From TrEMBL:
GO terms for biological process: secondary metabolic process. The keyword Manganese does not apply. One of its GO terms (cellular component) is cytosol. Belongs to the metallo-dependent hydrolases superfamily. This is Amidohydrolase-related domain-containing protein. Keywords: Decarboxylase, Lyase. GO terms for molecular function: carboxy-lyase activity; hydrolase activity. Residues 71-323 form the Amidohydrolase-related domain. It comes from the Eukaryota. Pfam families: Amidohydro_2.
Amino acid sequence: MTPPLLALEEHFYSNAIFNSIGETFRQTLQGVPGLAHQLRDFGDARIDAMDQGNISFQIVSHAFTPGGPSVAACQTGNDELASKIAQSSSPNRFAAFAVLPVSDPAASAAELERSVSALGFVGALIDNHADGKYFDGPDYDVLWAQACALDVPIYLHPTWPSARMAENFMGSYPVPVGISLGGPGWGWHGDVGLHVLKLFAAGVFDRFPRLKIIIGHMGETLPFMLERVSDMSTRWGGWGARERPLRQVWDENIWITTSGSWSLAPLKCVLHNTKVERIMYSVDYPFESNERGLQWFRELEDSGLLTEEQLEMVAYRNAEKLLQVKV
């Protein structure tokens, strides 16, 4: 029997954040029929979709915020999300990740503290960069320190490349193909993996050994390359030798989710180099359907890759422990 599922890369747009993301991106959302409506819905339709996918508990977060939203938009958006959960017909089935003004590290730390302490959020989900700027510099230590002090994870979520980054994905094919290659078709997954490596190389995990980072989509290409990158990192020597090797950081600081990757092939790779305690089910709703996620989980059950206890760990127990919630 399929265990209850807890999903934690599940998206929503408050009025404040939706109005801040720009007309171009709002029009992009309209390209998928019904998507914008699903992203803004927090009524019975969301709960019905959860039921169709056997999802007992959902961690809700704002979707992409290209360029980084303002402090005011984040505050208002987080307040609106908290209100939506409280007013829901099933508030005990939801928790939330905060949206943060990632272009401003100090303001991000302050909003994380407010969202966790005042609103009861269980961490933050943030775009992977702020208009091309990553978060490995010392100016972001204030954010990592706050996450450690609150003992909550930060979910590094893919986002669209900046204008400068997007140029690398254009070629002798139509522009929409290049846009897809820079986004969910390839680029943004490897970009999140690169960001994790930049945090490691910059010593962020040395300075903050209790930092908890979540990445989606079966580990954003890192599990497939983990042995190779781990070997290469030992050659950095005096340029960037770290107190703990990359494999140890992977085991102690990184969690991954299954979001939007509906094949057993990548999971087989993940299970060879990642502790099952660090793997968590997710869907990526509404960009992916809860029903498709449930179909994948049932294939996983039938595969024999995991014991019954391990299936429960991936389904909900690992997330319960990390986020201190209860299905």
